[in-house]
Design brief:
Elements: H1 5-14, E1 18-22, E2 25-29, H2 30-46, E3 54-58, H3 63-74, E4 78-81, H4 88-98, E5 102-105, H5 116-121, E6 124-127, H6 131-137, E7 153-160, E8 166-172, H7 173-187, E9 195-197, H8 205-208, H9 210-216, E10 219-222, H10 230-240, E11 243-247, H11 249-262, E12 269-274, H12 281-291, E13 295-301, E14 304-311, H13 313-317, H14 324-328, E15 333-334, E16 338-343, E17 356-362, H15 373-379, E18 380-381, E19 384-393, E20 399-404, E21 409-411, E22 414-416, H16 418-425, E23 431-441, E24 445-454, H17 458-466, E25 477-480, H18 494-503
Parallel strand pairs: 1-10, 3-4, 3-5, 5-6, 9-10, 9-11, 11-12, 12-13, 24-25
Antiparallel strand pairs: 1-2, 7-8, 13-14, 14-15, 16-17, 17-19, 18-19, 19-20, 21-22, 23-24
Length: 504
């Protein structure tokens, strides 16, 4: 089933419900939301978009993001949401790799795509401020969404890999349906009286929860800032009264600190689902002490989006269980539609309490990466997804993540893979060697730092990195060293570099 059927049905039974808000301004009810998406779909088909084609969305959070997303789905095509924080060259790689024939952009981002890679990809760029976009919305609406099979591609999610090149996770209509229905079973309840607030990128976790709220006819609120602003979030929550939102742990921590400083209680915040990085025990305790029992933790990956484990609201709030602290420091129990086990690097199951790689299988697990059989062979084994994360399961099925087998850095909820940054640094003519690691940071969880062998100054390296990769991936500090610590096989010892940072 094409998941966009949920919008069609909501328009039929609840067409007058408020659907899309820009701040407190109502942009469209469900009937108009449906009409615009269906009109855009008809335009896409007239322009040559066929079922299964990829259409990209390189936009900041705004109501038209959802109109574009559902327009793509109505046409039977697959959406390729691209993080608006990415550098134009990085977005161009995704466009080329996905084979997208069209990309929708929002204010300020069309200019970012004036790079060679976009021309090479042969991808048309259409800004939502362009007259052509407005004309597309005035087309005759497509009568019904194009039929899709459950296994058809719906969302091509690009997540960086250890090679430094982004990999396209194939998310199907079945996966989206499974995770969405599982939300009601495992995560939280939502009704037509609720609102979902998009303060985190809609290209990632926040956007993956839009379908749940379309299904029940809830309102979708896009902050005018198009991002994370604590005062704005608190004001909108107070205005609307039943706000649910997705947030990275660092967002929760900053929201708590600023709300306390402003003397704000968070009235109107009903649920905050946090995921995307480590949440320190002290931080969640402080957050709940201030805001109350509104927090729910989810653990997932792009390869199993928002769908591996959950620590429910009552479990986050529980202080009576003898092991409540250990549970709160973990990531909860398996969601209802997946199996989770701990295994060896070869995929052999380990006993309760033993540390190993976290493995998951079920209807929310991807069928594979886009045109990447090598990565598929490494990541998918006998139906199990090898997550690359390390952890343990206790006797009650609660999962604790102990480490990451890959060198992933999670800064402010965004994933940064060191190899990708290192490759950019190494293109500077005054650099011989480079190694990138994460340094603990009180606000961001981790920040990116680089150890560099060569004569390039920190200022030169900063300018060089900003010209090639997104700002959030650029190192926050550069340490010039005479050499990098290595083992007998020549591999850089990143554990020693991290130890140097801690000792400093």
């Amino acid at each position: 089933m094409n998941i966009s059927q949920w919008l069609c049905r909501q328009a039929q039974v609840g067409g007058e419900r408020p659907a899309l808000y820009f701040g407190t301004e109502l942009v469209a009810n469900y009937q108009e939301f449906h009409r615009r998406a269906a009109a855009l779909a008809n335009w896409l088909i007239a322009e040559g978009t066929a079922p299964g084609d990829r259409v990209a969305i390189f936009m900041k959070n705004c109501p038209d993001y959802l109109i574009a997303l559902y327009g793509v789905w109505y046409a039977g095509a697959a959406a390729v949401p691209i993080n608006a924080k990415l550098h134009g060259a990085e977005a161009a790689y995704i466009l080329e790799n996905s084979g997208a024939g069209l990309v929708f952009t929002s204010a300020g981002l069309k200019e970012a795509l004036q790079v060679e890679g976009v021309e090479r990809a042969g991808c048309r760029v259409l800004d939502i401020a362009d007259p052509d976009y407005e004309a597309a919305l005035q087309q005759e609406p497509l009568p019904v969404p194009v039929a899709c099979a459950p296994e058809d591609l719906a969302w091509l999610f690009y997540t960086s890999g250890t090679t430094g090149k982004p990999k396209g996770v194939m998310i199907t209509h079945r996966m989206l349906t499974t995770v969405s229905l599982g939300y009601f079973a495992d995560v939280d309840q939502a009704t037509g009286a609720d609102q979902i607030l998009y303060a985190a990128p809609m290209s990632h976790g926040a956007g993956l929860y839009n379908m749940v709220h379309v299904l029940v006819g809830a309102a979708h609120v896009c902050p005018p800032s198009a991002g994370f602003d604590v005062r704005e979030i608190l004001d909108l929550a107070a205005h609307f009264g039943r706000v649910q939102m997705f947030a990275a742990p660092t967002m929760v921590t900053r929201m708590t600190a600023q709300a306390k400083a402003m003397g704000r209680s968070g009235d109107g915040l009903r649920s905050v689902i946090y995921a995307g990085g480590p949440m320190y025990l002290a931080d969640i305790l402080e957050a709940e002490a201030h805001f109350g029992e509104i927090f729910i933790q989810v653990y997932g990956q792009g390869e199993c989006p928002m769908g591996i484990t959950v620590l429910k609201r009552e479990e986050v709030a529980d202080r009576s269980h003898p092991r409540w602290e250990a549970r709160l420091a973990g990531v909860g129990r398996a969601q209802s539609f997946v199996e989770v086990q701990i295994g060896t690097a070869e995929g052999e199951p380990l006993a309760t309490g033993e540390m190993g790689e976290i493995m998951v299988r079920g209807d929310a697990v991807m069928p594979g990466y886009w045109m990447n059989p090598k990565a598929n062979a490494e990541t998918l084994r006998d139906g199990w997804l090898m997550t690359g994360d390390m952890g343990t399961l206790d006797q009650d099925g609660y999962l604790t993540m102990t480490d990451r087998s890959k060198d992933l850095i999670i800064s402010g909820g965004s994933n940064v893979y060191p190899r990708e940054v290192e490759e950019v640094i190494l293109t500077h003519p005054l650099v011989q060697e480079a190694s990138v690691v994460g340094r603990p940071h009180s606000d961001w969880g981790e920040e990116v730092v680089a150890f560099v062998v060569g004569s390039a100054t920190p200022e030169q390296l900063e300018e060089h990195c900003r010209a090639h990769i997104a700002r959030f991936k650029c190192p926050k500090a550069y340490f010039q060293v005479p050499d990098l610590p290595k083992n007998n096989y020549g591999k850089v010892l990143k554990t020693e570099l991290r130890a140097r940072l801690l000792n400093a």
